[in-house]
Amino acid sequence: MKVTIISPNLYTYGSMLIGGVLKDKGYDVTLTKNLSADTDVVLLSLYSTLHLLNKNIKDFVSGSNSTVYVGGPVSAYPDIVLAELDVDAVIIGEGEESTIKLLDHGISENISGIAFRNGDKIIMTEPKPASIERPTPLIPGDIHKQDIRGANAYIETHRGCIGACGFCQVPEFFGKKIRSRRIEDIIHEIKLFKQYGVKRIAISGGTSSLFQYSGDRSMNESAFIELLAQIAEVMGSKNVSVPDIRVDYVNEEILQAIRDYTMGWVYYGIESGSNKILKDMRKGINTQTNIHAIELAREYGVKVGGSFIVGYPSETIEDYELTKDFIEDNLFDDVFISIAEPIPNTDLAERVLRTDDDDNPTFIKHTGEYSILNLTESEARCFDLSLHAEMCKFMPGIITDQVYQTYLGEARQQGSDIRAVTRLLKNYKQIID
Question: Do 240 and 305 share a domain, yes or no?
Fold first, then answer.
């Protein structure tokens, strides 16, 4: 049986992982980013809800003569996937084991973690966590050309997150219990990626510093530091990055390791300068926790990138101004701004579904200083905060016309995308209600 895995736009780690699992089981498997396949089975690896609205993907699925299964983060709402795409089944959650059973035996209610149509009904079976030990991924020959936030590839070190952030899908997808891989397996995999020409590796797993966390922070800290040291020995310290670390799971020892064994950056999910919004986001931290983590990183010579979210349903102008003040007061080395996206199966998605468009900043027309640009309130805040952050960096940037237009375009695109996702979720909710 010939199987083609399609991961649109970029090679996700999940698509490479499933490819490795299938290859290990003897399947003739190909991994591609292109929407074309002469094959028996197509596995569509979709990581964004927007993929369900993508005309090219829809046209490919409707015109395909292959059996088509969909997996990836979009499987959080399998009934929406089946409503939007004419696929044979959806692989729900962690797909390593259910994908093999699906290919071996065909669609059946006896397979855990799948959804499919049965006449007018949709049958869904309960997903189960997969084993954290698995074969090496199927690595494409052009992986070295890929660039995701500066890295050629992201390597999974563990699954799960003990946090409860209302906008994040990780705890719902992988659970709250941390399941970590063995360091020797991770290093073997990284050496293989390096053989394929990968220059820079980023490690991921929700919150990087929770690697091997089991309740004893001192034990997991030493394991995380050992992991960084061994990766740096393979790749060189300047070619290792550790994005997405929680401010309440970082300390002096971890920051020293990040300084010594990585490119020397830490990326914090600051999200907001308003304690009210941080509480609404269920971050489990406050602004003082954020400030302490930023100051601690600087004390150990680590550069700080901060990510911020604007347009939360409950965010007021006053909350937004507090975020602007926070950025100005703390002088980040880099800043990432995004509009709140209602990812399926998150608390944020439920909040958005309960919020009328007239009360949602992502739909409210902006009437302030950027009114001439015809933006929504969320888009205006995203644009304004991007400009503000550029001028308030530790090394301030110059707002040229090109920079201005880039930030404006990004804000508009984010707003358009998130409104499309919101309408999709609301339309579906109306149907089931």
Answer: yes
